[in-house]
Amino acid sequence: MNELLKKIYEKVISQEEDIFQMDKRINDCMEEYISRYKEDFSEKDMERIRDCVYYAVLTSQIEAFQMGMKYTVKTLLSILADL
After folding, report:
1. Number of domains comprising the chain
2. Is residue 48 part of a domain?
3. Per-residue pLDDT for 1 more than 90?
4. What is the DSSP letter of 67?
5. Fewest CB atoms within 10 A around its CB: which of 43, 56, 57, 70?
6. Which residues of 59-81 are buried (b: 16+ CB within 10 A; e: fewer)?
7. What digits encode the pLDDT tens for the residues 58-71?
8. Is the pTM of this model over 0.90?
9. For residue 50, what are the contacts with CB-CB under 8 A and spacing of at least 6?
10. Measured distance CA(34)–CA(55) in Å, rounded
């Protein structure tokens, strides 16, 4: 099920305009934070740090989507069981 939800997120949800806007806000925030360290690291190291942070954020977005879907279904099933 997680693989199916991951595919739905990657192929459908991630292409929505509100997700593009969210990604821009997150990217701006990450760049602002990461840029604080540009004097401490080489450009190559900064790129590695950036890659790690972006990967962690993408993984978090996918996991959050999956968790949200699961709780939505659980809530709907609970409501239907009470009818």
Report:
1. 1
2. yes
3. no
4. H
5. 43
6. eebbeebbeebeeeeeeeeeeee
7. 999 999 999 999 99
8. no
9. 30, 34
10. 14
